[in-house]
Amino acid sequence: MSTKYKAVEVTRPGVFTLTERPLTDPPAGQVRLRVEACGVCHSDSGTVDAVLPGITYPRVPGHEVVGKIDALGQGVSGWKIGQRVGVGFLGGHCGQCQSCRRGDFVNCTNQPISGAHFDGGYAEVMMAFPNGLVAIPEGLSSVEAAPLLCAGITTFNALRRSGAIPGDLVAILGIGGLGHLGVQFASHMGFKVVAVARGAEKEQLAKKLGAHHYIDSNAGDPAAALKALGGAKVILATASDSKAMSAIMGGLATRGRMIVVGAGAEAIQVSPFQLLFSSVGVEGALTGSPLIMRTRLASVSSKASNQ
């Protein structure tokens, strides 16, 4: 077995370096993975550009990671060598803070971020915390499973908790890494899906993925277009564009919600009158727990096996 492994690390903001690192045993309470696949997520820019707090360099990005456990640190139980597992954005909850004590592991206040606070999956080898792992079903390849560990679970969990029911009008703002998955999940959940993006070139893809309607935000007012369809119960804002979010808020139905999963640098502009007289709201959604990941992966694997 080689005593070294390759990794792509960020040595300072904006600078990538391909390097070799010595292969070490996992620390107590951690496992070592042989990485088979790692998605490239927009949130990786938080590491690359030093946007996320608490980052030190050099740091290996990557938080949509699938690999096989090849070593167990002291005290690790419940996982075995050779098991194929995934690691998402959240590296593992502490189990002690108030959020954890309430069972809200996603909002653990002491949780490290994979590829930001510890080295991630842009490498042949990665260390991980057991309570941040999810078992990967046999029916999914590592390449298929990797993006579901962040982009997939983020959009799925946001829609699952949105309060929308089958038949409700749900808009997906942005048809990129998050949005193309959001359209598929929304369609399978039985919603009347409206895809919203800039330009006409994504209309064919959006409808192939399950959208019932397509709105080109360059061609007119997207809020007015949504209102013409009856108004959206939910707008899932996946594009990292606060101006686009502000522009489409008027397309919400009474008591509708815009759920933000794409992080834009600027503030979202919302009229207090809109909030008051339409009872609409804006909220955020941050990924999901390993338990929810396991449920979602099992469902996707089952559908793939039946096709």
Explain the overall architecture.
The chain is α/β, with parallel strands linked by helices and about 300 residues long. The chain is built from ten helices and 13 strands. The strands form three sheets. Strands 10-9-8-11-12-13 form a six-stranded parallel β-sheet, sandwiched between helices. Helix 5 (about 180-190) links the parallel strand 8 and strand 9. The chain is elongated, with a radius of gyration of 20 Å.
Mean pLDDT: 93
Number of helices: 10
End-to-end distance: 39 Å
| Widest sheet, order of strands | 10-9-8-11-12-13
Q: Provide the β-strand percentage band.
A: 25-35%
Shape: elongated
Helix content: 25-40%
Q: Largest sheet, described in full?
A: 6 strands, parallel
Q: Which segments are poorly predicted (pLDDT under 50) over 5 or more consecutive residues?
A: none
Oligomeric state of the chains present here: single chain
| Structural class determined from secondary elements | alpha/beta
Radius of gyration: 20 Å
Helix and strand run: EEEHEEHEEHHEHEHEHEHEHEH
Overall strand count? 13
Topology:
Layout: E1 4-12, E2 15-22, E3 31-38, H1 45-48, E4 65-72, E5 84-87, H2 98-101, E6 125-128, E7 133-135, H3 142-145, H4 151-160, E8 169-173, H5 179-188, E9 192-197, H6 203-209, E10 213-216, H7 222-228, E11 232-237, H8 242-248, E12 252-260, H9 272-278, E13 281-284, H10 290-306
Parallel strand pairs: 8-9, 8-11, 9-10, 11-12, 12-13
Antiparallel strand pairs: 1-2, 3-4, 3-6, 4-5, 5-7
Helix pairs in contact: 4-5
